[in-house]
Amino acid sequence: AKTTQPISMDSYEGQEVNITCSHNNIATNDYITWYQQFPSQGPRFIIQGYKTKVTNEVASLFIPADRKSSTLSLPRVSLSDTAVYYCLVGDSGVADGLTFGKGTHLIIQP
Amino acid sequence: AAGVIQSPRHLIKEKRETATLKCYPIPRHDTVYWYQQGPGQDPQFLISFYEKMQSDKGSIPDRFSAQQFSDYHSELNMSSLELGDSALYFCASSPGTSGPLAKNIQYFGAGTRLSVL
């Protein structure tokens, strides 16, 4: 499914950051997955969900009932959270390639 | 924990030369993926292998080929290199059907930076 994210966001250390991704054409079998990428490094899986709320040690993912959007929440960010965040929506089966759209450049300031 | 290993980390080639990139997946991962990321671009999927068979194909040029070996490591072979091939090349692996039911979570290596002069 096509996704739309803000191109860039700024925040400050210690703040909570919420990045919203729109995916109006999400299909029934689609999952929502977020990856983080630092400059010159490979993307890193952050979190994945199908509906409602998912939380792990790194982030939370909020998905409303209609699933047409999702919000990645990063609690108490630090300078090291400065990165590009990608929202991927799809029903990737075994060995299917991922389609990365335009991610969100998150810049954390002191 | 063991991660995806890529070699070399940096590679400099001349136009029309060939290059071979290697990828060693996380132990017990049977699926390997290759991605290309040009300067200022987002990662683009090239090709994937599951149990040593080509599985999915993306925007991989005909000049490129890849294979997965019996020990599950993979090599991306690039011939007749062009200036536009200069990019970061990432390999990723996933457990395929042997892993959790989470949808195709992929684990990426640190990448190989290819510069074509």
Q: Alpha-carbon distance between the termini of chain B?
A: 36 Å
Tally the helices of chain A: 0
Which protein chains make the most extensive interface, counting residues with beta carbons within 8 Å of the other chain's beta carbons?
A-B, 24 and 33 residues
Task: State the share of residues found in helices of chain B, binned by percent.
Answer: under 10%
- The overall average pLDDT of chain A, rounded, is 94
Radius of gyration computed on alpha carbons of chain B: 14 Å
Write down the secondary-structure element order of chain A: EEEEEEEEE
CATH superfamily of chain A: Immunoglobulins
CATH topology of chain A: Immunoglobulin-like
Give a short account of the largest sheet of chain A. 5 strands, mixed
Roughly how much helix do the residues of chain A carry, as a percent range?
under 10%
Number of helical segments with 4 or more residues of chain B: 0
* The CATH top-level class label of chain B: Mainly Beta
Strand order of the largest sheet of chain A: 1-9-8-3-4
Radius of gyration based on Cα positions of chain A: 13 Å
Name the poorly predicted regions of chain B. none
Explain what you see.
Chain A is mostly beta strands and 110 residues long. Chain A contains no helices and nine strands. Chain A has one domain (8-109): Immunoglobulin-like (Sandwich). Chain A has strands at residues 8-12, 17-22, 31-37, 44-49, 52-55, 60-63, 69-74, 83-90, 104-109. Chain A is globular. Chain A starts with 7 loop residues before the first strand and ends with a strand. The mean pLDDT of chain A is 94. Chain B has one domain (5-116): Immunoglobulin-like (Sandwich). The termini of chain B are far apart. Chain B has strands at residues 5-7, 10-13, 19-24, 31-37, 44-50, 53-57, 64-68, 74-78, 87-94, 107-108, 112-116. Chain B contains no helices and eleven strands. Helices cover 0% and strands 49% of the residues of chain B. By secondary structure, chain B is mostly beta strands. In chain B, strands 2, 4, 5, 6, 9, 10 and 11 form a seven-stranded mixed beta sheet that branches. The interface between A and B is medium-sized, with 24 and 33 residues.
